[in-house]
Write a structure and sequence with these properties.
The protein is built from four helices and no strands. The chain is mostly helical. It is a multi-pass membrane protein.
């Protein structure tokens, strides 16, 4: 399980790059609301992470890919809600920089995402 978590973290790092890039583009260049931009970045990263985790981290052979993806994405949505709540708390109440708060949120939410995906998504039969 330790090596799966390391792989999950590496995939997560690639997702974080996608997430931050899309969030930055939408928030800073297109001037979208920070929560909408964050949600879009998170959604793109979650989709990328599903593919990479399916193939590399968990080496899933699940034939019902839509069911597996839905499970992964549902867990990601819960992670997104946690992510946005943490960002809200840290920026609005803690007065932290948005991107610092986002990094803290990602670090905290990765534990939820890994555990839930390990126990549910990639253990589906």
């Amino acid at each position: 399980m330790f090596f799966k978590f390391i792989k999950y973290g590496i995939v997560g790092l690639s997702g974080m790059i996608i997430d931050f890039s899309i969030t930055w583009l939408l928030k800073e260049k297109l001037r979208l609301n920070k929560y909408i931009a964050n949600s879009c970045g998170f959604t793109c990263a979650a989709s990328s992470n599903y593919i990479l985790n399916r193939v590399w981290t968990f080496q899933s052979h699940q034939k019902n890919i839509p069911k597996e993806y839905f499970s992964f994405f549902a867990i990601a949505v819960i992670g997104l809600l946690l992510n946005n709540a943490i960002i809200y708390f840290l920026t609005e109440k803690g007065k932290l920089n948005f991107y610092v708060a986002k990094l803290i949120a990602i670090i905290l939410v990765i534990f939820w995402n890994f555990t839930a995906n390990y126990l549910f998504t990639f253990s589906l039969k």
